[in-house]
Each structure stands twice: as structure tokens, then as C-alpha cells.
Amino acid sequence: xxxxxxxxxxxxxxxxxxxxxxxxxxxxxxxxxxxxxxxxxxxxxxxxxxxxxxxxxxxxxxxxxxxxxxxxxxxxxxxxxxxxxxxxxxxxxxxxxxxxxxxxxxxxxxxxxxxxxxxxxxxxxxxxxxxxxxxxxxxxxxxxxxxxxxxxxxxxxxxxxxxxxxxxxxxxxxxxxxxxxxxxxxxxxxxxxxxxxxxxxxxxxxxxxxxxxxxxxxxxxxxxxxxxxxxxxxxxxxxxxxxxxxxxxxxxxxxxxxxxxxxxxxxxxx
Amino acid sequence: xxxxxxxxxxxxxxxxxxxxxxxxxxxxxxxxxxxxxxxxxxxxxxxxxxxxxxxxxxxxxxxxxxxxxxxxxxxxxxxxxxxxxxxxxxxxxxxxxxxxxxxxxxxxxxxxxxxxxxxxxxxxxxxxxxxxxxxxxxxxxxxxxxxxxxxxxxxxxxxxxxxxxxxxxxxxxxxxxxxxxxxxxxxxxxxxxxxxxxxxxxxxxxxxxxxxxxxxxxxxxxxxxxx
Amino acid sequence: xxxxxxxxxxxxxxxxxxxxxxxxxxxxxxxxxxxxxxxxxxxxxxxxxxxxxxxxxxxxxxxxxxxxxxxxxxxxxxxxxxxxxxxxxxxxxxxxxxxxxxxxxxxxxxxxxxxxxxxxxxxxxxxxxxxxxxxxxxxxxxxxxxxxxxxxxxxxxxxxxxxxxxxxxxxxxxxxxxxxxxxxxxxxxxxxxxxxxx
Lengths: 270, 227, 198
Known about the structure:
The complex is a heterotrimer.
Chain A: E1 2-10, E2 19-26, E3 31-35, H1 42-50, H2 53-56, E4 61-68, E5 80-83, H3 98-108, H4 113-126, H5 142-154, E6 160-164, H6 172-185, E7 190-194, H7 198-204, E8 207-212, E9 215-220, H8 222-226, H9 239-246, H10 256-269
Parallel strand pairs in A: 3-7, 3-8, 5-6, 6-7
Antiparallel strand pairs in A: 1-2, 1-4, 8-9
Helix pairs in contact in A: 3-4, 3-5
Chain B: H1 7-23, H2 26-40, H3 46-69, H4 75-98, H5 101-108, H6 115-144, H7 156-182, H8 203-225
Chain C: H1 5-12, H2 18-38, H3 47-55, H4 58-75, H5 84-99, H6 106-132, H7 141-149, H8 154-183, H9 186-189
Helix pairs in contact in C: 2-3, 2-4, 3-4, 3-5, 3-8, 4-5, 5-6, 6-8, 7-8
């Protein structure tokens, strides 16, 4: 559970806030999609949640509060999974096999060896990396590297799992595997999903936070966002939704079947 | 020496010849060189080892001998310099070419130094490769923009900047991004590290270390007792 | 409150500083390729160490120097390992200089660079004389031979050679680091672990 109250941040020597006055409340088992055009402050917001801003960006000013759980106990680094935009910079760089790369942070946190083996098997099969188990991480393709980076973070079973544009380098199959995994993972951890890929976001997330120029434009379910009068032209919407909008539908649906039914109805009435 | 060696054994091997170079009498040193040459011809990459010995160690050794025997110095002084040089450098070559990087990496985990330092050690090799790629990309990019390295000597220092600055900026910004990612890797975790795979000291390693250390000690003691 | 040495060492080599120290090591090692391209008769192989001294601190720079020489020994030339103490001293001096806010004016940087060169020559001369007897198959060997020929001892010849070449090398290195720090955008500078640079 996360409660955020009036959170704002400004980098040192920047004229405007990266994001400002963000307030939200997220229950356990929920996934929050953070969407918006580039430079909207999405990544900085994610850094704030993970506690990186105070430590790594000197001179920045962070105001507002972030409360985790009832006891205000922020998750430790072993309990946060963070997948960064550039997966190649996230790999440890000292391992020689995919298997060892997944084990790396578990080794550092002192996870017992039998549990470690279990988790490795689990991640290898979840992310379809079994065939790559003994490959050197440097020889993987962009998509495979991204999957490995996600698997390495997921292996910690994080309480808070933040993913910054994870589908960027992925092909359709990989995106499918990732979404399937996250749908299961969100039962036990809170997921913050920063994405430009709207169809993945709408499929996974119960709530979306729409940022533009650092301002909170909208917070609510994807369904409510699309049926509100908020300008979403800066987002790249899935074709399914674009079609409904261009045909002037009042009540936009996220469901494929329902939309097809509606289109059939349109045709017969025309 | 086709077996897997623990880094500690390799270190003791280097140390042993270091002691011979420092404390050994000329005859001991000659025996040491013999041992080194036979070790060099029994490792896996013996061709490379011999190449390194023939093209690097031998020329400098001979040069040292000639230079130090010249200028009116006694013949034995040149020999001492040459022997010392060979004894200091050859073990390093043998260890480097004889061991495998994987064994070394895994073995390092059992050596009692802070884990973040052995992490750094392995990682620095990784980053050299990626920085080389960055440097090549920057060099080609600057050449396409009309960069010319063949200026007159007085202007040469100005030539460094168009290459060095972009490389540094890219490298530093990548390094800072890695720093962020490392927060979640647990390198700072106070927990006792448990590794999936390690390389522990085999009985052969333990025996070798004992022999090497004892003979080193013996040599040092002997050098003080004997005239 | 003054921190203990051990504490400062730990703080300067935290997980967050490690990738930067590694970058310093990498820079040191590719400087050879860069000077070959630019055809400059200098080594400049401590630019990375000095830079780390400026942005991460003294202990980080010492680790950077040590590791650079070990790595160079493994990759290029085993003899480099014996010169690790020299690099550690360079790291210590650079870190100390930065902690006294030395990188704020060019004349100070030039003066300290020259001073660093003298220190380096003093530290490396005994090693060079002991391991190599002054011969490194490098471009400065002729200087050693010249001093030997005019009747100096090995130790003195090597020291004179060092004093003739090191101050220029270190001075250029320090000036390069100074200009790089000047050119560093604020967005990166604010993320350095230590604020020794204005």
C-alpha cells in the first residue's frame, strides 16, 4: 500500500518542477500505470518512489510525503525491484551466464542456495530464458537483455516493482510474456508501470496516472480516462480505441469483443 | 598445470619468485629461471607464453645485462639485473596465460577481501571493452565531422579534446546510470554473501600453497644466515 | 565530526561509486589508444585516476589507481603491476588536492600538476631501477642511457629521467581533468558523489 501526498520535485538549476502536486493512494495488489509524453516527469517520479532522488541528485528539492503501509516502513533495496530504461546498463557486468546474472542480486542479499536455485528456475521459465541459461549476457539480443534485466529484478520477489518503459526493446511475444507475468506478480506486489505502450498499460493496470509537463492531468481507471473529456492526443492510443474515437463513440470500451459487437451494430444501423 | 588453480595458489607462485628475485643467491635464481621456463612450457597457452618470453622478456633481459655490464661495471652485476627482471615478470606471464578467467573470477569470491572490491576488479575488465567501443564510435564520428589528428606538434594538445571529452561524458553518464541500478543489486547489503558457484581450495592448492610459502620463508631465512 | 579512515574508505567505495571508479579505470586504460591516435608523446595514463580523485575522493582514487595498474598488467604488460604504488600515490594526491578545492583555478592546477610529476618521479624511480634497471623499451630509455653514460648510477639516472618527463605528463593530465570538469554539464555534476568541484 502506498499513499502519496502532494509530492513535487525540482532538479537543481532547473527552472521548473519535474513533477508537482501528485497525490494518490494505491492498495496492495494493484498496478499503477504512469503515462504521458516524454519529458513529462514519469521517470523522475519513479526515482522519487524508489528513494533515489535524495541520494543521487544533489541539490534537488523534494517536497510532500510518501507513506508505505500503515507503519510508514519504506521498502529496503532488497524489497524494491527497479527495471531501468537501458537494460544493458542494468546488468551486473561481471557474470558469464544468464543463470548467474539472475542469481547476482540474490547472492548479494544472502539468499540461501536452495531458494536461489528455485528462484532461478522460476524466472528462467517465466521469461522463457531456459534455452539461454548458459549464454553470456553480452551475447543476448536487445529484447533478450531486457527480459534478463526484468527477470533479475523479479527474482528478488520485490514488494514494490517499478518498471520504466520495459516494453521498449521487446517484440510482441516478449510483451505477452511480460504482461502475463506481471498480472500474476501484482497479487503479491505493488507494480508501478511506466509506459508509452498504451495497450499493455491498459491491459495490466487498474489505475493510470496521466502526467503532462509534470502535472497530474488524470488519476483513475483507464476506462474513466478514455471516457473523460481530458485531451489525450499526446498519447499513442491502441488502434482499437482510436477507431472508436474516430467513429465518435460516446462510451469507449477497452474490450475487444464488445467493440466488435458495437461496430457490427453500427454497420447494421447504417 | 592443466588443472584448475585457485587465485591464492597463483598469488603464492608469484610471491615465491618475488622472494627468489629479492633474496636468492645467483645460483638459486638460475634454478628459479629453469623452473619458470619448464612451467611456461607446460601450461595450456604455452605458445603464447613463449612468444611473450621471446619477444618481451628476453630482449629486455639481454639489454639489461649489456647496459649494466657496460660503463665499467662488473660482469656479475649485469647478470643480477637480468635475472631479477626475468624472475619478476615471467611468473606473472605464466599465471596470466595458465589460468582461466572463470576460475579466477570464481576463486576470487573465496578470498577474504570486501566483495565490492572483487566486484570492481572483475567489472573493470568489462568496462574497458565497452569504453573502447565508445572511443571507436566517437573517433569515427569526429572524423566524419572533419576531425584531423595530423596537426602540427604545437596544436596537438588541442586534438585531445574532441576525442577525450565526448568519451568522458558518455562514460560518466553511463557510470551514473549504473550507479542508480546498483542501488537495487544489493552490493551494499550487510548480509553474508552466498554464491551460486565458487571455487574453493582443493587439496592440491593447499599443498602447493604450503610448499611455496615454506620455501619462500626458508629462502628468506637462509639469505640472512648464510654469508 | 571527523570520520575514521576506514569509514571514509567505505563511503567512497560504496555500490554507487563503484561504476564511476570502474569508468576511471577504463579511461586510464584507453588513454594509450587515444594518445596513439593523436600522436602525442605522453602517457596520460592517470587522467582517469585524477578525475576520480576530483569527483569521488581520495580513497576512491587510490583504489582506481591500484586497479588500473593491475588491469593494465593483465591486459597489456605484466610489469605495470609493479608500478601500482605510483598510481596509488597519484590517486591520493589528486584526492587531497580536490578536497582542498584545488580544481577551481587553472594556475593552481598547473602548479600542482608539476608538483605531482616530481612526486611521481620520486616514487617510480626506485621501482624502475629495481625491476628494470632503467630499461622499459619505452621512448624515454635513451635519457636513462645518456645519464648512465655520463657516469651516474642506475638509481640516479632513472630519477633524472623521471624528473625530465613526468612533470609534463602529469601537468597535462591535471589540466585535461580541469577542462573536462569545466565542460561537465550541471545535470551530471549534481550527481557526483562528492561536491569537491564547484
